[in-house]
Amino acid sequence: MSNIYGDRVKAVRLLMGLTREAFGSAVGIGYLRLTNIEVGRAKLSAEDLTSLTTVYPEITDYLLHGVDLNPDRLGNSKSPQVLAMANHIRKHGMAGIE
């Protein structure tokens, strides 16, 4: 069974350098729900997607369509987590994340 959306959520979280607890708290998704999404036991709901993209609108195209995360575009964000993600991608790319 494909878990493309859960894999993308996990990739974003790891690129930001956040634990499930910290990421879930930031976006308003509980730890257990986030874990279940990431490992494929639960599907990403419209409510989950809204929570994620309201807090981090920069990740919308990646989550929905797999559009590459452009570190230059991400670097314009005011979010420290998004800036951390941009820096990680600049230094290491997406290697080991997806």
Task: Explain what you see.
The chain is mostly helical. It has one domain (4-92): 434 Repressor (Amino-terminal Domain) (Orthogonal Bundle). It is 64% helix and 0% strand. It has helices spanning 4-16, 20-27, 31-39, 46-55, 60-65, 71-74, 80-92. Helix 1 (4-16) packs across helix 3 and helix 1 crosses helix 7. The longest helix has 13 residues, at 4-16. The radius of gyration is 12 Å and the shape is globular. The mean pLDDT is 94.
Keywords, please?
98 residues, mainly alpha, 434 Repressor (Amino-terminal Domain), 7 helices, globular
Secondary-structure map:
Blueprint (H helix, E strand, L loop, with lengths): L3 H13 L3 H8 L3 H9 L6 H10 L4 H6 L5 H4 L5 H13 L6
Helix pairs in contact: 1-3, 1-7
Please state the average pLDDT score. 94
What CATH first level would be assigned? Mainly Alpha
Query: Pairing-aware structural class of the strands and helices?
Result: mainly alpha
Q: What overall form do the CA principal axes indicate? A: globular
Q: What is the overall number of helices?
A: 7
